[in-house]
């Protein structure tokens, strides 16, 4: 780079009567021969200019290119340590004042500074992120800093987060109920919202594409068909709905389990809690399945492609009718008709099946409710008995 | 399962080591040091396995063992005839060229018995006896009795003499240095830059190069010591020596153990050439040692009533005492350089079984060393005058060598220079591994140079040519330099200075060509509104130094001190002067981007670029920063 020397000198304005003197015609005083010391980058630059016969500007350009080449060669972060794209997330006041006792409620990904990766973070990244946080928040580092040097609450939170995320089973449980996504789950647009939008089709895809991308992570079978675009083919659309109506989710709700009271050694107590947890898990699971189904129902109802496909079918049917009216290609029409019939039958069967399924779910719900009620009654009776005994 | 999900896709980093494993070796006559590149790409002087950053250039043979470095130096006391020191200066020299009259306390330099006119060292060593031949099974079974289970006792080693040439000694020593560096780095050293003194001729350089390749060291360059110092000082982070301009005149004071070497360098944006050099082997660290030893010997005699004559010592007992003292004062000197308090020197059983403990403080030490400081000062003056300059023209003093770390030397020298002169002591970079640490400066410079050379490619003809430019006596090292300072004069009414205006130097004298300099500054445009013009003249300037003598100011009413006043000399003051030499050209441009500054005056930022070609053709470009209209002028060369 051209090196510019900033001078603190401020020359005065030209005198009123000053005119630039004509050039004297003299040239620079005679030069002397010197022997340069072959050392340092300046000599290298000098030699490069001389050997390659470059002007200063050309050499500047070369040097700049060279520098860039070196930068790319050495990677973006020249310190040689790769943080696997974890980066540095700002730590909010709320995050730092987390209570380790309430660890179930904390967002483990946010604690480790991985909230941009979440379930996508791999084990290596979690490890690096944990190391980073520990280096920053270890109580030993804070000793001597003004304030309460025993304040290792956040460090405990970090350890808890690492505890959860480094264990695949625990991590799966937490991923199932990741508070970040649970919040997003509430933000499904309603039918009315989509329909009242000025461009319902575009809005539909804008809103629902990310929802399905999010939900896809729970699928046991991968890859998951995505919503796709407006001009998706009939097969694609059908494939999508078929997959999602039979969505097989690994999501589970053990994370919300109530802790078995460690203090009591009552086996009954323990069993009771376990039982309760189990039913609660099942309830939540059912709710989640229902939620996904509702979501797919909603999508199906709003999907502009369904309308298009129906119209297309109708058009072909009409075209066939017309062809039939023309008396041509009779056999073919017959065949088509048969096909249609078959399809209709299939659809009906499917519908029936769905209805049945829903009915079965309903029935199951009722049954559980009844069971719960019975249990309640039994318990009430027992308490009464106990009271009486007392 | 979460684990089966398509998780993060960050790739594992590919390990590209940006730092080549090269070392810089400062190979002095008495001490050597090694520097390697650290993680940040800066050079660090490292310690060898004995924890010494200053590794004594000594090799001692005792029995079957060979000692290298500071361990060998201690052998000078009891095993002096088998201890080799001071071998670097003999490299590439013929035996007939070496003055052998100097009394030595180490192994004598002798004529090599086989190779004509070659200096060599003869040392007594013990050679391990050859292992007994393995007994053949066929014959032994019948003739000899059954072999005992006891291990065969090792035969006594045989005493023998070994003749070592200077080059062999150097190879052994360099190998041990590189080994230390490899142990430190944990990797093989790919190349090294070794420093050589300025006075080394082609013969010496060749001999050193050969010795290095014998030792298995790839020499990237044999770098002049001055060059290493320039690399270190110019590549230093700018924040530390901000007061220093990029174009400066540097005085290099290398006060090693065996001699004084002075270089006056013109450093222009990192490109340096030597204006004058001077080497003198009569003053040096050894002379300092001699004086210190004499001082302590006198004290010893005073305390114990035991006569002790040293430097030079004649009796064998005195010689041994001298060697002991010499080792001990090394420590004393370092303590003195490091702290302001008194430093002790203690030797057990110095002579006749008598212990000695003495102390010297810095004031006393500086008093003792005054003649040496004065000698250095005189040489500096001689050098600068020889280059046609004045002490006031020196912008920076750089110290090299252990003896130059003495703060007293800096104080003694600085008195003659301009008050703004920057020395490592005023900049505070001597201690704590700073830039100006005289003991490590050369090794660090050599390492940085090695880093530079290691990155050079060898793909094309031109790249090889560039690489060859670093070899000694390459034609690319020839360059022309300006003789007069060229700059701008902004004419001014009623100017105070002799130049009739504000002077801005742009291209200093002794700037190697071709060169380019750009300056940027604010110009005052006055209070008037309307069209504004900026004009300046381009002049060559003659610089000089004016001496003025004036009587010291007399205070009235101190008649009682009148006698003393008479003895006072006239105070001599020096001042830098500038004189117009020749007008080259002038330039005027319209100021369109003037901005009102405080006080109703308007200002504009002007950028002026000077470009001087290889043969002296000058072109000047001026424009208003950042992107005003460019106005150019040029001056043809007279050649």
TrEMBL record, chain A:
Annotated Basic and acidic residues bias: 309-318, 335-365
One GO cellular component this record assigns the protein to is: cytosol
Q: Which Gene3D superfamilies match?
A: DnaJ domain
Single GO BP term:
'de novo' cotranslational protein folding
The segments labelled Disordered in the record are 259-290, 309-390
Gene Ontology molecular-function annotations: Hsp70 protein binding; ribosome binding
- UniProt cross-references to CDD domains, sorted A to Z: DnaJ (cd06257), zuotin_NTD (cd23953)
Q: Which domain of life is it from?
A: Eukaryota
Pfam families registered for this protein in UniProt: DnaJ (PF00226), ZUO1-like_ZHD (PF21884), Zuotin_N (PF26185)
User: PANTHER family, from UniProt?
Assistant: DNAJ HOMOLOG SUBFAMILY C MEMBER 2
Instruction: Tell me the protein's name.
Output: J domain-containing protein
From TrEMBL, chain B:
Annotated region described as Disordered, given as residue ranges? 551-576
Upper taxonomic classification of the species?
Eukaryota, Fungi, Dikarya, Basidiomycota, Agaricomycotina
Query: Acidic residues compositional bias: what residue ranges?
Result: 557-572
Question: What is this protein called in UniProt?
Answer: Actin-like ATPase domain-containing protein
Q: Read off the PANTHER family from this record.
A: HEAT SHOCK PROTEIN PDR13 (PTHR45639:SF32), HSC70CB, ISOFORM G-RELATED (PTHR45639)
The record's keywords, sorted A to Z, are:
ATP-binding, Nucleotide-binding
Q: Name one Pfam family in it.
A: HSP70
Q: Which domain of life is it from?
A: Eukaryota
GO MF terms listed in the record are: ATP binding; ATP-dependent protein folding chaperone
State a GO cellular component annotated for this protein.
cytosol
- According to its UniProt entry, this protein's organism is Phanerochaete carnosa (strain HHB-10118-sp)
């Amino acid at each position: 780079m051209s090196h510019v020397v900033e001078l603190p000198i401020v020359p005065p304005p030209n005198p009123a009567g000053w005119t630039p003197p004509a050039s004297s015609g003299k040239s620079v005083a005679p030069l002397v021969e010197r022997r340069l010391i072959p050392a340092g980058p300046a000599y290298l630059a000098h030699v490069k200019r001389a050997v390659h016969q470059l002007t200063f500007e050309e050499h500047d350009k070369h040097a700049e290119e060279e520098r860039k080449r070196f930068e790319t060669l050495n990677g973006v972060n020249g310190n040689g340590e790769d943080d696997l794209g974890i980066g540095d997330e700002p730590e909010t006041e709320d995050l730092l004042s987390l209570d380790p006792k309430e660890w179930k409620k904390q967002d483990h990904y946010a604690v480790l500074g991985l909230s941009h990766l979440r379930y996508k973070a791999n084990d290596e990244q979690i490890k690096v992120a944990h190391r980073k946080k520990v280096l920053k928040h270890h109580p030993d580092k804070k000793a001597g800093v003004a304030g309460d040097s025993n304040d290792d609450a956040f460090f405990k939170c970090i350890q808890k987060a690492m505890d959860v995320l480094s264990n695949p089973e625990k991590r799966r449980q937490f991923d199932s109920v990741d508070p970040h996504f649970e919040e997003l789950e509430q933000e499904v647009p309603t039918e009315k919202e989509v329909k009242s939008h000025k461009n319902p089709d575009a809005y539909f895809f804008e809103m629902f594409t990310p929802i399905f991308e999010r939900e896809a992570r729970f699928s046991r079978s991968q890859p998951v068909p995505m919503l796709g675009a407006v001009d998706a083919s009939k097969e694609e659309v059908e494939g999508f709905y078929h997959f999602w109506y039979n969505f097989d989710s690994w999501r589970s709700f053990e994370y919300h389990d109530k802790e078995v009271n460690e203090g009591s050694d009552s086996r009954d107590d323990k069993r009771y809690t376990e039982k309760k947890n189990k039913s609660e898990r099942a309830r939540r699971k059912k709710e989640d399945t229902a939620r996904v189904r509702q979501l797919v129902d909603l999508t199906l109802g709003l999907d502009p492609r369904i309308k298009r496909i129906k119209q297309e079918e109708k058009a072909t049917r009409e075209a066939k009718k017309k062809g039939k009216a023309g008396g041509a290609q009779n056999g073919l029409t017959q065949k088509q008709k048969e096909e249609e019939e078959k399809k209709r039958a299939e659809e009906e069967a499917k519908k029936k099946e769905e209805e049945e399924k829903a009915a079965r779910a309903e029935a199951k719900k009722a049954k559980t409710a009844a069971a719960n009620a019975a249990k309640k009654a039994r318990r009430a009776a027992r308490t009464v008995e106990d009271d009486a005994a007392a | 399962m979460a684990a089966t999900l398509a998780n993060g896709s960050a790739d594992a980093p590919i390990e590209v080591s940006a730092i080549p494993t090269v070392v810089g070796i400062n190979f002095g006559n008495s001490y050597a040091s090694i520097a390697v590149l650290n993680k940040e790409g800066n050079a660090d002087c490292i310690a060898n396995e004995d924890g010494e950053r200053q590794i004594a250039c000594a090799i001692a043979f005792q029995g079957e063992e060979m000692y290298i470095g500071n361990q060998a130096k201690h052998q000078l006391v009891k095993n002096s005839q088998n201890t080799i020191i001071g071998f670097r200066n003999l490299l590439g020299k013929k035996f007939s060229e070496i003055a052998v009259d100097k009394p030595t306390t180490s192994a004598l330099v002798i004529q090599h018995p086989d190779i004509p006119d070659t200096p060599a060292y003869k040392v007594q060593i013990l050679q391990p006896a050859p292992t007994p031949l393995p007994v053949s099974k066929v014959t032994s079974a019948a003739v000899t009795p059954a072999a005992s289970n006891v291990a065969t006792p090792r035969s006594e080693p045989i005493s023998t003499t070994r003749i070592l040439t200077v080059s062999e000694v150097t190879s052994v020593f360099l190998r041990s240095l590189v080994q230390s560096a490899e142990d430190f780095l944990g990797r093989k050293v790919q190349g090294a830059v070794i420093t050589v003194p300025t006075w080394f001729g082609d013969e010496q350089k060749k001999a050193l190069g050969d010795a290095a390749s014998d030792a298995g060291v790839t020499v990237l360059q044999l770098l002049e010591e001055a060059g290493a110092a320039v690399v270190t000082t110019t590549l230093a982070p700018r924040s530390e020596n901000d007061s220093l301009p990029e174009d400066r005149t540097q005085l290099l004071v290398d006060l090693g153990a065996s001699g004084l070497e002075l270089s006056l360098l013109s450093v222009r944006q990192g490109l340096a050439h030597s204006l004058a050099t001077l080497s003198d082997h009569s003053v040096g660290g050894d002379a300092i040692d001699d004086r210190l030893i004499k001082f302590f010997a006198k004290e010893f005699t005073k305390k114990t009533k035991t006569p002790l004559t040293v430097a030079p010592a004649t009796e064998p007992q005195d010689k041994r005492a001298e060697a002991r003292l010499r080792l001990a004062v090394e420590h004393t000197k370092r303590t003195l350089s490091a702290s302001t308090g008194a430093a002790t020197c203690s030797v057990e059983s110095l002579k006749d079984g008598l212990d000695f403990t003495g102390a010297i403080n810095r004031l006393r030490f500086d008093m003792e060393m005054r003649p040496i400081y004065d000698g250095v000062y005189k040489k500096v003056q001689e050098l600068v005058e020889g280059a046609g300059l004045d002490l006031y023209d020196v912008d920076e003093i750089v110290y090299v060598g252990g003896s130059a770390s003495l703060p007293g030397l800096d104080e003694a020298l600085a008195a003659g220079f301009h008050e703004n002169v920057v020395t490592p002591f005023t900049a505070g970079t001597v201690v704590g591994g700073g830039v100006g640490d005289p003991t490590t400066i050369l090794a660090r410079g050599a390492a940085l140079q090695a880093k530079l050379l290691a990155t050079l490619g060898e793909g094309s003809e031109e790249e090889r040519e560039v690489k060859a430019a670093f070899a000694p006596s390459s034609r690319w090292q020839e360059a022309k330099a300006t003789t007069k300072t060229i700059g701008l004069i902004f004419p001014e009414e009623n100017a105070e200075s002799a130049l009739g205006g504000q002077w801005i130097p742009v291209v200093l004298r002794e700037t190697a060509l071709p060169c380019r300099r750009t300056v940027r500054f604010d110009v005052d445009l006055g209070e008037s509104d309307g069209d504004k013009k900026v004009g300046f003249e381009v002049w060559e300037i003659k610089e000089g130094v004016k001496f003025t003598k004036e009587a010291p100011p007399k205070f009235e009413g101190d008649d009682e001190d009148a006698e003393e006043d008479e003895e006072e000399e006239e105070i001599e003051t020096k001042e830098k002067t500038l004189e117009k030499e020749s007008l080259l050209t002038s330039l005027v441009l319209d100021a369109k981007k003037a901005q009102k500054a405080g006080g109703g005056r308007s200002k504009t930022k002007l950028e002026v670029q000077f470009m001087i070609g290889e043969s002296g053709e000058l072109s000047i470009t001026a424009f208003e920063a950042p992107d005003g209209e460019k106005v150019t002028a040029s001056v043809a060369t007279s050649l």
